[in-house]
Amino acid sequence: MRLNIVLKGDEAAIRVLIKHPMETGMRKDKASGKVLPANYIQTLAIAHKGQTVVNANCGVAVSKDPFFFFKVKGVAAGDAIKISWKDNTGKTEEKEEKVA
Amino acid sequence: MNTNFKRRILLKGTMTAGLAAVAATAGLLTPRLVMAAWPGAAFEAKKIDGALTTLVGSSAMTKSGDVKIKAPSIAENGAVVNVVVKTKMADVESISILVEQNATPLAFNVELAKTATPFVKTRIKIGKTSEVIGVVKAGGKLYSATKKVKVTVGGCGG
């Protein structure tokens, strides 16, 4: 997961790029003809100093290797921003960064 | 005042989701963002009306010039289409992105706390030429804007 946080005034521009197949469960593997099982991110949350400020829900229509861009106000340099996601298979990942 | 605010949220939460309300009182979640579970039924709904009713309780939308949606008019690759939905409205609770012609129209939804700017950008898949709808929930009402995206290569096939 790649995280880019840019602070402008008190508003943080938060860009998140996640490596994930976002498989819909409807596509077939061309070689074997078998249906590829669904594997996609369902929830993504952003916490600012421990408080959830953004709570996103994704369906299968979010692109492979998803990109998200959010803006959060009331942020100061040094604040901790934590991003976490969970997919339908139960896999999770989280990353915390201090705002520069 | 703070206590009152929390109580109101708790009452609201009790009506919709008992477990989430318990979590909120325990201080595990921000009061405003009580609904933490993934709203699967909304994402599996085959019609826009069904998806929105399940997700935000209503599908009655007002078209609004205050909701801005940005997407390309022609997408050469339907698998990766940049979409921006933003508004200057106050009290925005959530923003959703729906693709009318996709098998399951709801693509993305985000609940925003008061400090989050009502703005979102992401990349979505569009199966075939379709209206893309940005829905903003503000002050309990739904406002929408649409943009037609022409797809030359679909995003949902192999």
Mean pLDDT of chain B: 84
Strand content of chain A: over 45%
Query: Which regions of chain B are unreliable across 5 or more consecutive residues at pLDDT < 50?
Result: 20-31
Q: Determine the fraction of residues in helical runs of chain B and give it as a percent range.
A: 10-25%
Strand count of chain A:
7
Radius of gyration of chain B, taken over Cα atoms and rounded to an integer in Å: 17 Å
Describe the biggest sheet of chain A?
4 strands, antiparallel
The succession of helices and strands of chain B, N to C, reads HHHHEEEEEEEEE
Question: Any key phrases for this structure?
Answer:
heterodimer, A: 100 residues, mainly beta, 4-stranded antiparallel sheet, 3-stranded antiparallel sheet, 7 strands, B: 158 residues, alpha+beta, 6-stranded mixed sheet, 4 helices
What do these coordinates show?
The complex is a heterodimer of chains A (100) and B (158). Chain A has strands at residues 2-8, 11-17, 41-48, 51-58, 67-72, 80-87, 92-98. By secondary structure, chain A is mostly beta strands. Chain A has a 4-stranded antiparallel β-sheet, with no helix packed on it. In chain A, strand 1 (2-8) and strand 2 form a beta hairpin. The mean pLDDT of chain A is 95. In chain B, 42% of the residues are buried. The chains are: A mainly beta (100), B alpha+beta (158). Chain A binds chain B through residues 11, 24, 26-28, 30, 42-43, 46, 48, 51-64, 66-74, and chain B through 29-30, 33, 35-36, 38-40, 43, 79-81, 99, 102-104, 106-113, 115-117, 119-126, 155-158.
